[in-house]
Task: inverse folding
């Protein structure tokens, strides 16, 4: 069965004491091995080097299905790559994970992979926009975190500016949601945007900042 050797490699590095702390910190009810991210990255680098794209997708699927915290992070990192010639299967797998998100760490590693696939094919934002109405708060949050790469462009093209405006509209829709992680994601988007387009972030806050919780307003304006 694919994935068994890779899961064994992860398990061989397990640290029970760290695993207990990770379980208490992340709170999501799943197995934890107690690995540090650099340990996962070292393993993933080896797996990526010896697998083609279909092989990576198959392995990522198996790692994710294990429901082990570190394996799910490894699955996301295995698919985090700027250029993939034929990435339909990669995107489909990452998008299938979104409704299963239940904690920030795994969700954010998956967003790093998904954001690259969105940048490669911005038309996928149409599907991402549907997540705004998802009953899972982590899926709603993912609409913003997957689109974070657009905040970090130093020289956006007109199409990129249009995406920024679109996602800022999503932030308006999500702002009434009082969940801490939703508020944090909006603030994160605006904070990162302000580093490259302070005027746009400042304008959004002037118009809609009062709809955010005070901590989110402060975080969003940190660099303004």
Result:
């Amino acid at each position: 069965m694919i994935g068994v050797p890779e899961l064994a490699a992860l398990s061989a590095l397990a640290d029970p004491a760290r695993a207990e702390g990770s379980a208490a910190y992340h709170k999501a009810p799943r197995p934890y091995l107690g690995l540090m991210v650099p340990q996962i990255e070292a393993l993933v680098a080896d797996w990526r080097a010896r697998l083609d794209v279909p092989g990576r997708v198959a392995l990522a699927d198996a790692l994710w299905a294990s429901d082990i915290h570190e394996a799910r992070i490894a699955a996301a990192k295995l698919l985090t790559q700027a250029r993939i010639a034929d990435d339909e299967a990669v995107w489909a797998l990452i998008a299938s994970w979104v409704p299963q998100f239940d904690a920030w760490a795994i969700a954010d590693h998956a967003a790093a992979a998904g954001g690259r696939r969105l940048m490669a094919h911005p038309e996928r934002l149409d599907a991402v926009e549907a997540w705004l109405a998802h009953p899972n708060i982590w899926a709603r949050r993912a609409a913003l975190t997957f689109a974070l790469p657009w905040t970090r462009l130093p020289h956006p093209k007109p199409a990129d500016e249009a995406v920024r405006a679109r996602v800022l509209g999503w932030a308006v829709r999500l702002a009434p949601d009082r969940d801490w992680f939703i508020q944090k994601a909006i603030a994160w988007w605006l904070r990162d945007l302000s580093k490259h387009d302070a005027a746009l972030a400042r304008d959004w806050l002037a118009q809609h900042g009062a709809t955010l919780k005070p901590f989110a307003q402060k975080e969003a304006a940190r660099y303004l």
Q: What stands out?
A: Residues 198 and 224 are 7 Å apart (CA to CA).
